[in-house]
Amino acid sequence: MVVRLEGDRPGVDAEERRAFVAETAEALRRAVRASDVLASVDEGTFCVLLTAVATGGGEATVLSRLVEAVAATNARSGRPLELRLSVGAATYDPERPVPLAELVEAAEGRLGPPPA
Asked: Does any domain span residue 14?
Protein backbone atom coordinates (compact mmCIF):
# COMPACT_ATOMS: atom_id res chain seq x y z
CA MET A 1 0.00 0.00 0.00
CA VAL A 2 1.31 3.46 -0.87
CA VAL A 3 -0.04 6.53 0.92
CA ARG A 4 0.73 10.00 -0.41
CA LEU A 5 0.06 13.27 1.36
CA GLU A 6 -1.83 15.74 -0.81
CA GLY A 7 -0.48 19.00 0.55
CA ASP A 8 0.78 20.87 -2.48
CA ARG A 9 -1.97 23.46 -2.39
CA PRO A 10 -1.84 27.23 -2.46
CA GLY A 11 -0.98 28.65 0.93
CA VAL A 12 0.99 25.62 2.19
CA ASP A 13 4.53 26.66 3.08
CA ALA A 14 7.48 24.36 3.85
CA GLU A 15 6.86 24.44 7.61
CA GLU A 16 3.19 23.49 7.20
CA ARG A 17 4.20 20.74 4.77
CA ARG A 18 6.61 19.26 7.35
CA ALA A 19 3.82 19.38 9.94
CA PHE A 20 1.47 17.61 7.51
CA VAL A 21 4.11 14.91 6.91
CA ALA A 22 4.50 14.38 10.66
CA GLU A 23 0.71 14.22 11.12
CA THR A 24 0.45 11.74 8.24
CA ALA A 25 3.09 9.52 9.81
CA GLU A 26 1.26 9.61 13.14
CA ALA A 27 -2.10 8.81 11.49
CA LEU A 28 -0.48 5.86 9.71
CA ARG A 29 1.13 4.62 12.94
CA ARG A 30 -2.32 4.61 14.55
CA ALA A 31 -3.86 2.81 11.57
CA VAL A 32 -1.46 -0.09 11.00
CA ARG A 33 -1.03 -3.20 13.10
CA ALA A 34 2.16 -3.96 15.02
CA SER A 35 2.94 -6.72 12.50
CA ASP A 36 2.77 -4.33 9.50
CA VAL A 37 5.80 -2.46 8.19
CA LEU A 38 5.55 1.32 7.76
CA ALA A 39 8.24 3.28 5.93
CA SER A 40 8.66 6.80 4.64
CA VAL A 41 9.88 6.50 1.04
CA ASP A 42 9.83 10.19 0.11
CA GLU A 43 8.69 13.41 1.73
CA GLY A 44 4.97 12.92 2.13
CA THR A 45 4.94 9.41 0.63
CA PHE A 46 4.74 6.29 2.75
CA CYS A 47 4.78 2.59 2.01
CA VAL A 48 2.89 0.12 4.21
CA LEU A 49 3.60 -3.58 3.88
CA LEU A 50 0.60 -5.39 5.32
CA THR A 51 1.39 -8.80 6.73
CA ALA A 52 -1.10 -11.65 6.87
CA VAL A 53 -3.71 -9.76 4.84
CA ALA A 54 -5.85 -12.84 4.29
CA THR A 55 -6.11 -13.62 8.00
CA GLY A 56 -6.28 -10.19 9.62
CA GLY A 57 -8.70 -8.08 7.60
CA GLY A 58 -5.68 -6.37 6.09
CA GLU A 59 -6.21 -3.61 3.60
CA ALA A 60 -9.85 -2.78 4.40
CA THR A 61 -9.11 -2.65 8.13
CA VAL A 62 -6.10 -0.39 7.68
CA LEU A 63 -8.01 1.89 5.29
CA SER A 64 -10.88 2.17 7.78
CA ARG A 65 -8.48 3.02 10.61
CA LEU A 66 -6.65 5.51 8.39
CA VAL A 67 -9.91 7.29 7.52
CA GLU A 68 -10.70 7.51 11.24
CA ALA A 69 -7.20 8.79 12.09
CA VAL A 70 -7.33 11.46 9.36
CA ALA A 71 -10.82 12.54 10.46
CA ALA A 72 -9.62 12.86 14.07
CA THR A 73 -6.61 14.90 12.94
CA ASN A 74 -8.79 17.19 10.83
CA ALA A 75 -11.33 17.62 13.66
CA ARG A 76 -8.79 19.39 15.85
CA SER A 77 -9.49 23.10 16.08
CA GLY A 78 -7.10 25.68 14.73
CA ARG A 79 -6.08 23.72 11.63
CA PRO A 80 -5.62 25.99 8.60
CA LEU A 81 -6.03 23.14 6.06
CA GLU A 82 -7.34 19.59 6.11
CA LEU A 83 -5.03 16.61 5.89
CA ARG A 84 -5.80 14.78 2.61
CA LEU A 85 -4.28 11.50 1.43
CA SER A 86 -4.26 9.37 -1.70
CA VAL A 87 -3.96 5.60 -1.31
CA GLY A 88 -2.95 2.94 -3.80
CA ALA A 89 -2.59 -0.78 -3.13
CA ALA A 90 -1.03 -3.82 -4.76
CA THR A 91 -1.03 -7.43 -3.62
CA TYR A 92 2.03 -9.64 -3.39
CA ASP A 93 1.40 -13.11 -4.79
CA PRO A 94 3.92 -15.63 -3.43
CA GLU A 95 3.07 -17.91 -6.36
CA ARG A 96 4.29 -15.16 -8.75
CA PRO A 97 6.85 -13.13 -6.79
CA VAL A 98 8.02 -9.73 -8.01
CA PRO A 99 10.68 -7.36 -6.65
CA LEU A 100 9.53 -4.88 -4.01
CA ALA A 101 10.16 -1.96 -6.39
CA GLU A 102 7.62 -3.42 -8.85
CA LEU A 103 5.07 -3.92 -6.10
CA VAL A 104 5.46 -0.31 -4.95
CA GLU A 105 5.25 0.91 -8.55
CA ALA A 106 2.02 -1.03 -9.03
CA ALA A 107 0.55 0.51 -5.86
CA GLU A 108 1.62 4.00 -6.98
CA GLY A 109 -0.13 3.37 -10.30
CA ARG A 110 -3.34 2.83 -8.35
CA LEU A 111 -3.15 5.98 -6.25
CA GLY A 112 -6.63 7.36 -6.10
CA PRO A 113 -7.50 11.02 -5.84
CA PRO A 114 -7.86 12.39 -2.33
CA PRO A 115 -11.42 12.81 -1.10
CA ALA A 116 -12.91 16.19 -1.94
From this structure: yes
